[in-house]
Amino acid sequence: MTDPVIRTLSASDAHLFDALPDPLGAREGHRRTRFRPDWKRVALRDGEVVARGAWWGGPDDSEPVNINWFDVAEGEEEAGAELLRSAPWQVELEINLPGGWRDEPGLRAGAEARFAAARAAGYELLVERFLYRWTPERGLPERPGRLRFSAEPDDAVFFDALRRIHSATLDAHALRAVEEGGLDRAAQEELDFFHWCPSPREWWRTAYTPEGDLAGIHIPAHNPSGPTIGFIGVVPEQRGRGYAYDLLAECTHLLVEQGAEFVGGATDQANFPMAANFAKAGFPVIRERVNFHPAGRMA
Prior knowledge:
By secondary structure, this protein is an alpha+beta fold. The protein is built from 7 helices and 12 strands. It has helices spanning 26-29, 77-85, 105-120, 155-166, 172-196, 243-257, 272-280; strands spanning 5-8, 40-45, 48-56, 66-72, 92-98, 123-134, 148-151, 205-208, 214-223, 226-234, 263-268, 285-294. It has an 8-stranded mixed beta sheet with strand order 1-2-3-4-5-12-6-11. The longest helix has 25 residues, at 172-196. The mean pLDDT is 95.
């Protein structure tokens, strides 16, 4: 067997990316995603495409943020690994899968082949997540009316709230950021991401109890795939009262008031309370996501 040839694509040969079958339905999930041809790479063996990866970032980014489309042909895990390890960018890898993929032998085999390639390339599992999508026929979630929501122009207020929220969190990305750089790092990463999103800063909201105490924050956002529940967080001393649902309902309403025809969302599968809130608010699971990160990433 000949060694695979790794090739970075261009506008003239971008069609090669479509040479592999799409058994996991990635193309449907990326209908709204805009990829740059030169951030797509393929592995060829004897002239046939046996693995592919699409790195993705915002329109003004000089380097990709992540890899969110990665496929390997049957038996070509090593070619997929070489595609990843030889890339000039070592960024997080997202593998998006149909809901319930573990229950379908074909889907499970395809997913596990991609996982094996990622691990062989030096990637480690970070977290598995549920992806949600609210649509109008689900009906808007009821607003409990227990909290007072306010626009807050001062980033320092959100920074402080995020530090408090991440001091006791179930979110794997936040936990990794805390481990690498402390609570300040975790809070700043969140702020940087939402400033990066192409949605107005004026949408961000703080939430207060009737007594005037901060209960939490919610951040409605648009990412490049559309309107989404950007962030829901309750400060530790206010937990146990169900306020995350109040924040989620309000966030959904605000996005719809701004013209959203659907609303996306996501949470870690181990975050059982937030998953329950999404279900209560009428957000069905539409896909699942498995996140890998490069091993030994520098802090």
